[in-house]
Amino acid sequence: MRIMILNGPNMNLLGVREPHIYGTTTLAEVEARCRSVAAVIGATLAFRQSNHEGELIDWIHAARSEADAIIINPAAFSFTSIAILDALKTFEGPVIEVHMSNIHARDALHRHSLISGAAKAVICGLGPFGYIAAMLSAGHLLKKLPDSLPAPLRAGLP
After folding, report:
1. 2-155 carries CATH number 3.40.50.9100
2. Is 104 known to be catalytic?
3. What is the pTM of this model?
């Protein structure tokens, strides 16, 4: 199982940018947790972040041959990027959209994600755990995880 996790603009500042909304966990810590889960569920993981729309689109195009599932936190591009939406529509595997905060409980600018139109599932409001939930969901959607979770996950997630 090959999972590509993409992070949009300003996610490189996770942990210091608006901690009252996004918490204090850094993107490097999120990546480390995701890599731990990937090892347990037998997945390979590409974990990337860019502040540039075109680079995210290039990675989505590459995922067509390099990944079975895409997990994307498009950040601000959620609300503005038809180009990312169109690129995601070309991907044949499951796309899972992740948001650290509950975008539906935020101000009017942050309530409607264009990207959701290409997503099989949307996870929001779980903070960093949303990425882990998305990885497990990707495994479920790809029918790559057993009906019961592997023992290390039952014992407690990283």
Report:
1. yes
2. no
3. 0.90
